[in-house]
Amino acid sequence: MAREITQVPFAPILKKRKRVAAYARVSSGKDAMLHSLSAQISYYSELIQKHPCWEFAGVYADEAKTGTRDSREQFQKLLQDCRNGKVNMVITKSISRFARNTVTLLSTIRDLKALGVDVFFEEQNIHTLSADGELMITVLASYAQEESLSASENQKWRIRKNFEAGIPCDGTILGYRYKDGSYVIEPTEAETVRRIYGMYLSGMGERSIAKKLNSEELSTRYGNCWTKNSIASVLKNYTYTGNLLLQKTFRENHLTKHDVKNHGQLPQYHAADTHEAIISMEDYNAVQEEMVRRAARYAPPTKDYTKRYPYSSLITCGCCGARYSRKVTHGGPVWICTTYNTQGKSVCPSKAVPERVLDSLTADISLDDLTALRAENGNRLVFCFKDGSESVKRWEDRSRVESWTPEMKEAARQKSKMARSKAVPKLYHSPRRRPHADSEECDRNSSNLSCPDTSAGNPESVPPCRRVCPCEHRQRRAVHQL
After folding, report:
1. For the whole model, what pTM was predicted?
2. Residue 363 vs residues 317, 333, 376: alpha-carbon distances, Å
């Protein structure tokens, strides 16, 4: 019997639509740039949705962000969506719009290539998944990075030429407006600057000054709330004396864009009497001396601020999201929200956590396994572990009796004892008490401490304060107290 062989048919494989997204970026917030960004978003939205084999996955756009950094919010969101399988292909205008840093560009492309995500550059007509795509991109990315370097050097040259002429690079400063090449005083803000200097010289601290200004609803030059750092920047600003000290800092390079203090690496320029002063040179120097004195007085024993304690940089506030910092109080060290500590309960209604509570709750937990420790209202501590799990623990407040340490009790005892030893008996006659009707009874011998009202009974059963008549009770009040 002949064998019969037939081919088993399969259902046709339906080709899935490719999820396509676009990325756009402008490096400035000017109106022309924002118009360009809006045009790019509209163009890519229409382009992707018109394609029959593509599924629109969105347009990711960064506004006023440089291409030499990879810390762009929408750029990072796009990469995360690619890792999560939400995007199969990315379209962008050119290599320079995607990234101007060669290292960032190549590492990003290789990561997406490993995920099977294609990046298409319209201007260069290059697909990263093609055979020669990475080679071409490496060459073109180098050109884009050099273009960024050239633009950066041109800007530096312009700024340094202005410094040589005594012209500042930025006219944004509280108390002044930059008009026609010089600073002009803004009276309302100038008065705020004078108050800040006056309050500091009167003994107030930077946090106290910030609290006072915020309570009066006064804002910074940028319209933000005052903080310790913003107060310090005003106190250290030499421009308020009517002079300019130019090129105090400089940019490290065009890729990192880190500001570095100028300690002689580049020339520094001093321009005298360039504008009207808000603060006299005497007050400015007095403030600088006071800041140095306070810094020396309250300087911590170590300069390792980030990890001085086991809970440093670990605890976050469940109300405002700020970090918790350590603070020593009369009841012992506590960890407190920095927002609450600087701006008060009206801004952040969080609660301080005693350090002893943290020690007891973390006794069976390794702090190295935690990514964060979130302090929430209701005495709740949420432990966030590196594996993504969370656990909640509660803690109880100490009573007033328990909050008194032995040292505090002994100090209170000594204070009370000292107050009693310094007490002086006061001899007086209260007009509210009527004396005995018989004046002879009031003239009894002072050694006789019995009262006619109690002599008939047992005087020992009567409290000492009742064993004298009303008149002598007040006159001999010190006898009972002693």
Report:
1. 0.49
2. 21, 18, 20
